Amino acid sequence: MTLQSLLSEVDMLQPEAIQWRRYMHQHPELSFHEKLTSQYIEQILLSFGNLLVSRPTATSVMARLIGSSSGKVLAIRADIDALPIQEDTNLSFSSTNDGVMHACGHDGHTAIVLGVAKIFAKYFSTHEFSGEIRFIFQHAEELPPGGADEMIAAGVMEGVDWVIGAHLQSPVAVGKVGVVGGAMLASPDTFHITINGKGGHAAQPHTTVDSIAIGAQIVTNLQHIVARATNPLEPLVVSVTQFIAGHAHNVIPGSVQMTGTVRAMEPTLREEVPRQMEQIIKGLTLAHGAEYEFKYSYGYRPLINDANVSKLVADTIVELFGEDNLYTIKPSMAADDFSAYLNCVPGTYFNIGAGNVEAGIVYPHHHPKFDIDERSLAVGMKVFIASTFKLLSLA
Ligand code: NI
């Protein structure tokens, strides 16, 4: 068995992978409700033979390809959920589930990893290998608290040495593949602040404790954390995204509700921010005679790729497609719960270009007209297969 023969399998498998992707695209399901999707994936995996297929949670699937002797264990993860978006693509395989759409490409991720599982399951029925390849089809990437932590609690990472995963990218041309070592995505935490003042007549502000005036100071002072209280070389976003108060032009409202998000990449900075926020909120409300409630909820962890595994995957991409088709991912303050697996073991999350300007595949993720160039499926399968070859020293 050679890597070359497996890679040529990918080209033969491509039409089938497209069928899987289109079926899932036509039947999308929301996070934590991937009932038919997980059944569909399970049935396909069972048809390959050689795989130990299980259901770690109600709507997720795991398949293990276990070698003839013990060795290193590589996990490959795909997310399987869709979004609450009304599709507007006019594709022949558009969503048949009103108001639900695969608008982030998770249908493609699933098809790619199914293809990789099929090819390895077939080859290892006649070839021996040491170790294990574990395929993780994870539910609920799009909706915090996310499916990854549930799957890890169910034991999917037990005995695993490395993890790799990938995300399709419609803003990047098909054929390009991106990797970055180190921090890639942020932690998307959320907060809620209530300021309780004292309402009253707007003509007599001295008889009130103006929750809006205090709330406005809190909004501007929170930026002090970003601008003055933290290291400028460590990225941080603090955004107040909701400010709800009042109902009349002549009434000072008794309270203000604020909601927002904090994004960070350094775990220690992330731990520090809620304390600094509360200090500002406490100080300003105390100064003006109001009271506050502050709730801070941790979202997914920052996504930090391992340098060595990232380099191995980057080298693999160059060998497969040439230097010109490898790009370095620019870190962003978006998030993905693949970070939960990377918190367990080293690994990398790479990006697969799926855009095509000439074909009109130009819409961003989470857009009603989002689509992918399906040639990206073969690109993704090849990167996973060749990287697995290296990590598990197959040949
Ligand atoms: Ni996504």
Question: In short, what is this structure?
Answer:
The chain is of the alpha/beta class and 395 residues long. It has helices at residues 3-26, 35-48, 106-123, 148-153, 211-229, 267-287, 307-321, 339-342, 375-391; strands at residues 52-54, 61-66, 69-79, 130-138, 162-173, 177-179, 182-185, 187-196, 200-201, 236-244, 251-252, 255-264, 291-297, 303-305, 326-328, 347-355.
List the topology elements.
Layout: H1 3-26, H2 35-48, E1 52-54, E2 61-66, E3 69-79, H3 106-123, E4 130-138, H4 148-153, E5 162-173, E6 177-179, E7 182-185, E8 187-196, E9 200-201, H5 211-229, E10 236-244, E11 251-252, E12 255-264, H6 267-287, E13 291-297, E14 303-305, H7 307-321, E15 326-328, H8 339-342, E16 347-355, H9 375-391
Parallel strand pairs: 3-4, 3-5, 5-16, 6-15
Antiparallel strand pairs: 1-2, 2-4, 6-16, 7-14, 8-12, 8-13, 9-11, 10-12
Helix pairs in contact: 1-3, 1-9, 2-3, 3-9, 5-6, 7-9
The structure holds nickel (II) ion (NI).
Structure description:
With 395 residues, this protein is α/β, with parallel strands linked by helices. The chain has two domains: 3-182 and 302-391, Zn peptidases (Aminopeptidase); 187-297, Alpha-Beta Plaits (2-Layer Sandwich). It is built from nine helices and 16 strands. 46% of the residues are buried. It binds nickel (II) ion (NI).
